[in-house]
Write a structure and sequence with these properties.
mainly alpha, Methane Monooxygenase Hydroxylase, Chain G, domain 1
Length: 560
């Protein structure tokens, strides 16, 4: 049997089309579902058992455990899910991802999807060119579904026919009849394939095709499936290696959960497979050892039952897994991840207590923007490109966190406002809505200043020492204004309203001085026009930032 480079590239291309179809279908499903997925994830995870059901539902819909894990990590980051709740969702994602194997087993091998796939491409084509974003997303969904099964058809055709080639079968049998040695070899193979391909679903599809073509038997295919369970967690851990501690902990919990599950099943694999064969026969199926055609269904059954049993057992040890990963992954000083420490526990029995929770969360919100101002001040004089990039990443990350914090505090205040409130408490809630809006605007201003400094660096522009000194003075005034705002926010009453107004006036006056000197500096050649544009933009943004700070103090004053 000759197998040329062209045949090999056809095999790789078929796998690539399957992967692209899976990716397109997953991403378009997330776009179609959008915020509804996030709402389900945030509302249905009050305990780890609900979290498991949520993980199953989300992963079954988006057909990607990786996509579910990414959403979980972002919710842990935002403090909307505790680590224990996230472990429940990840466990559920392991069950949800088994749906892919069933789709391939039933549709990919039982039904000729190639005949339906091309008409689906034809149906999706005009929708893809629609100007309506929602319709376009549905078009991408249909196209992804079609490409997935076209890729699978090509994959089945690209795998060489080895039924008449005893040499290849002999080569495989050398590794498939070594008992536990074979299990370990194929487990490692499944792990490495998943890491290389970056998709457990694609590796599962490849395993099913290999079984269907007679390359490997049922028992070693089951070992490959176990390896895929480990491989998908390694991919997540590699991705989380540059992320924050919350992401690392969630990824590490996923790894521990799957590694333990693989370990106990591997110890009893021969007996476990006998149980699967019996159950498959009980359902009316043939033995996968006697019929190659029966292997895909039996393997899907093994994949599902293994994940259900593993989750049913380890869900009780979620607190232990959480404590373990917390000890393994420590929070560092430079870790900018955050959690909502107060309002995530839900509304309290009285409106006063709930409002106090929201106020405490607003203080943490303000502390984050103070941190952003410090980063911006350091960025102004940072000459090292790598250190500057890290500062910009921190500012951008904090700004994203601030966006989420504003939304969650606002949602919480909306729930509070729907209860019976006294006139005083109504004023306090309205004041807090204004407060969080202005605090988030401070974060936006910090991001805008950082963007201007990035633009200056990208264009290789330099500020003279005098200009840099002026901006440091302006940022110092802004920092003092925000610190006064913080004092007022913590005390929940404006004891320094005069100081806040004085500082805001000082910022305005200094802005006027700098803008008055600007044209004169251009004429003197102190700096070029390009530098001048960035300079005045930063000065104006600093003045706006000061306005937002005084707005917070005034909002606190208005509620009294």
């Amino acid at each position: 049997m000759e197998y040329s480079m062209l045949d090999f590239l056809t095999l790789v291309g078929s796998l690539g089309m399957f992967l692209y179809g899976m990716k397109l279908m997953s991403e378009s499903l997330q776009k179609v579902a959008g915020s509804r997925m996030r709402e389900i994830l945030s509302s249905m995870t009050s305990n780890r058992f609900k979290g498991v059901l949520t993980g199953i539902l989300i992963t079954a819909l988006v057909q990607s455990s990786s996509a579910t894990t990414v959403m979980v990590v972002s919710f842990v980051n935002a403090g909307l899910l505790s680590l224990i709740q996230s472990i429940g969702v990840i466990m559920g994602a392991n069950i949800g991802t088994t749906i892919t194997a069933w789709l391939i087993s039933f549709l990919g091998f039982k039904v000729s999807m190639g005949a339906l796939a091309l008409p689906l491409v034809g149906l999706s084509l005009p929708i893809l060119f629609s100007k309506n974003r929602k319709r376009k997303n549905w078009g991408e969904l249909l196209m992804g579904f079609a490409l997935l099964f076209i890729g699978l058809d090509f994959l089945k055709g690209a795998v060489p026919d080895i039924s008449g080639n005893h040499e290849v079968l002999s080569f495989l049998s050398d590794y498939s009849s070594m008992g536990y040695g074979s299990y370990f070899i194929f487990l490692v193979m499944g792990t490495l394939l998943t890491v290389v391909i970056q998709s457990s679903s694609a590796t599962m599809a490849l395993t099913l095709v290999m079984c269907n073509s007679g390359w490997i038997g049922f028992d070693v295919a089951a070992a490959m499936v176990l390896g895929e369970n480990i491989g998908t967690t390694i991919t997540a851990n590699i991705a989380a290696s540059v992320a924050n501690s919350s992401a690392k902990r969630a990824a590490r919990a996923h790894f521990i959960f799957n590694l333990f599950g693989v370990a106990w099943v591997l110890l009893i694999l021969p007996f476990f497979l006998k149980g699967i064969v019996w159950f498959n026969g009980y359902l009316g199926g043939e033995s996968p050892y006697a019929s190659v055609a029966a292997i895909p269904i039996a393997l899907s059954l093994f994949h599902t039952i293994f994940n259900i049993l593993n989750t049913s057992f380890l869900i009780w040890f979620a607190p232990f897994i959480a404590r373990t990963v917390e000890k393994m992954v420590k929070v560092t000083e430079n870790d900018d991840d955050f959690t909502l420490k107060h309002i995530k526990i839900g509304m309290l029995s009285t409106p006063e207590a709930s409002i106090y929770q929201a106020k405490q969360e607003s203080v943490l919100f303000a502390e984050r923007v103070i941190k952003m101002i410090k980063h911006v001040t350091r960025l102004l004089s940072e000459q090292n490109d790598k250190k500057a990039d890290k500062l910009v990443d921190k500012i951008r990350k904090n700004e994203d966190c601030c966006d989420m914090m504003e939304i969650e505090i606002a949602n919480y205040l909306t729930k509070v406002s729907e209860t019976r409130l006294s006139e005083t408490n109504s004023k306090r809630v309205r004041s807090m809505f204004k407060t969080i809006d202005d605090i988030e605007s401070i974060a936006d201003s910090c991001m805008n200043i950082a963007s201007n400094l990035v633009r200056k660096r990208d264009q290789r522009l330099k500020f003279p020492e005098e200009v840099e000194s002026n901006l440091k003075v302006m940022l110092g005034l802004v920092a003092e204004s925000v610190n006064i705002m913080m004092v007022n926010l913590k005390l929940d009453k404006v004891v320094s309203v005069d100081a806040a107004k004085e500082k805001e006036e000082e910022i305005n006056n200094y802005r006027d001085i700098l803008k008055g000197e600007h044209l004169s500096n251009i004429e003197k050649g102190l700096y070029g026009y390009a530098e001048g544009i960035i300079y005045t933009d930063i000065v104006s943004e600093c003045e706006r930032l000061g306005d937002f700070a005084i707005n917070v103090s005034e909002a606190l004053f208005e509620k009294e």
